[in-house]
Every structure is written in C-alpha cells, then in structure tokens.
Write a structure and sequence with these properties.
Length: about 190
C-alpha cells in the first residue's frame, strides 16, 4: 500500500496536536504554511490529504475544519474515513491510454471531457483493455455477455458500434476501439 500523507495547511496548533499522536497514526504528517503549500508540485498535492481550516480552491482531497474546537477522536476518525474514501477512489480509476475509466461511476474521461457508460460498455472496455490479443466477437459474447457461442446474435457488434459512436461524439476519437480480422482491440 502506498504511503499516506496528511498535510496540515497553515495551522501549527493542529499540526502540533497531531504530531504528539504521530506514533498512533498510520500516515505521514506534514505541516505546510501558505507559502510552502503554494510551492508544492501538483502531484504532491494530489497524492496527499489536506487538513485545513479554510477551503483551498482546486484541491480535491481536503478536510475543511469548519467547526472548531473538535474532539481529537472525531478528527482522527474523520481523517481515517477520508483516507479510506481517497484510496477507494484511486483504486477504482483505471488508465486506458489517454483515458481513465472509473469503475464506480462507470465513466470514461479525460481532463476535459467525460462520458457515462452502461455496465456492458464498461465491461467491454475493461475486457479489451485486459486482453493481450485481439478479442473475437465469440470471445466477447462468451466472456462479457455469458452467451453460448452457438447463438446467432449481433449483440456484440451493436454494442461496440454504439460505444464507438459515443466515444467519437464526446472525445472525437475514431480509433479507441480498433476492429480487425482477428477481433477488437483498444488503441
């Protein structure tokens, strides 16, 4: 498991209290003043959970302590729950080329655009992503739809066609799913 980092933003008192309990915490603790925080790289901010008394624009994973004082037990519980949520969200995002697929929300997205997927569309993308070779229609039919290969159906072709059409419309990408004589692959 990755090291979890908690950055206490511009509150030396809160940092001091948590630092005294540091041996009981399961994350690394850092103090950052406003100036120090502004010099952090974006990746360092994204990988950490930020504990702050005021909302910081553009920071996704932060705990804003609106109501102080707070019981230490409640604060630590809030921090632990926030780390669990952050880790759950990290584990649900899968990289697929220049895209991310979120398994929880069934969305495929880039920095600028996102597309809601049906459960089967997400399953097809995930299956193709994990395949080392092109997948035939029969293979997708058996593995994703759990249909016998002897069934005469155009379910796979129809789903892939619609999925390609949606991806082209939102992302202007005609080459996300490639079709060849050997089957479908993700580019």
């Amino acid at each position: 498991m990755n090291t979890q980092n908690l950055i206490v933003y511009d509150s030396k008192i809160i940092f001091s209290i948590l630092d005294e309990l540091n041996d009981q915490l399961n994350y690394k603790l850092f103090y950052k003043s406003k100036k120090d925080f502004s010099q952090l790289k974006e990746k360092e901010i994204q990988e950490a959970l930020i504990l702050t008394k005021e909302n910081i624009n553009g920071v996704k994973d932060q705990i804003v302590l609106e109501f102080l004082p707070i019981r230490i037990k409640n604060l630590i519980e809030t921090i632990n729950i926030s780390f669990l949520k952050k880790n759950f969200n990290i584990q649900s995002d899968i990289s697929i080329g220049s895209y991310k697929l979120n398994l929880n929300s069934r969305k495929i997205y880039t920095n600028r655009f996102s597309l809601d997927l049906t459960e089967k569309e997400a399953d097809v993308i995930l299956y193709l992503r994990n395949s080392v070779k092109p997948c035939s229609i029969v293979e997708l039919q058996e593995s994703v739809w759990k249909h016998a290969s002897s069934l005469e159906t155009h379910t796979v072709e129809t789903h892939v066609y619609r999925l390609r059409k949606k991806i082209k419309k939102i992302f202007n990408d005609e080459n996300f799913i490639i079709s060849s004589k050997k089957g479908y692959t993700i580019n």
